[in-house]
């Protein structure tokens, strides 16, 4: 992504915010003319920093950092160390306390670490203060996720959505990004006053680009809306869920298509729609972008047209990675995000995937009953799949199914469940139309 007078790159391995430093690093070399980094020098190294609340359980803190490390690896960085500081609230100036900041600085200087990644969104002043102190690249969670979206976006719509999110992230952080910004234009012969500062010029350019991208997305929205209207008379089913739960693999199974699937976060950014006919029951199945905790609001706003596939769906299939220790929290994150986009009131099927990867604690094998799960207590053993199924079948009004898309376990049962629900919705929505009618 480029801006007049400055070459911008949004990868954490090519951050927009750089300062010169006397500390040698093993990361990419900086071009003093353009201010960008040559990423051909090899994989960058990163340290992770988290400032959890003092009441947050240790297991949850580890889980959050595991996810952040997975994000960093997806973006191409290798994590070498984690720093954790428990505070009532983050430090206003540098997010971490002075002592922890000194510890981080000593480590990055000794190991020549390339960047520091924070598990929260940093304010513009915190970014500036941290870069001034550590003299290496500082990446917060929002920028890391936006970068991964930029890498994954393939369609013109998705690329435009990501670019808008990038510029919206950049705008409040322009101050101090480039050394030339303290210079001024104008003030010469036949011109009065000091002229317009370059920081004001850069902000104006960014705002103009944001306005342009928003107008461009409106055109894409109109096209998408027209396409969705042309599908009238056909039920729409959308796969939703936390990122990396196997939605694309399931999409390929149900639709016999070849949607890209990979064991990395946000493998799917572009929304994909396929025609599916099961037992003479037709419907349109869409694979949508995965959700994640602390998903940047600007990304949700930018991906409005993509999320419309969820808003306008007749049935949601909520896919959950049952093998993940925090699957219940993932369910809550997805449900909260669906509320944010006004899609929480839709009919929904809960599909627990990856039963082949479910690992059972040995202590659970000796339990005859399962009274509940408390993710805050490390000593609580995991229940068996049979116990989980009985628990969720008892709690949920709609049927719940446990499958393995990778190993194709219980896929026929899932197909039968989909047919039953789609047929019922079709009869209710289009009482005068035969469900097999499909152009």
Automatic annotation (TrEMBL):
Biased composition annotated in UniProt, kind: Polar residues: 1-15, 33-44
Domain of life: Bacteria
Compartment list: Cytoplasm
Domain Hflx-type G, residue spans: 235-426
Pfam families: GTP-bdg_M, GTP-bdg_N, MMR_HSR1
Known role: GTPase that associates with the 50S ribosomal subunit and may have a role during protein synthesis or ribosome biogenesis.
Record's subunit section: Monomer. Associates with the 50S ribosomal subunit.
Name of protein: GTPase HflX
The organism of origin for this protein: Hymenobacter fastidiosus
Lineage start: Bacteria, Pseudomonadati, Bacteroidota, Cytophagia, Cytophagales
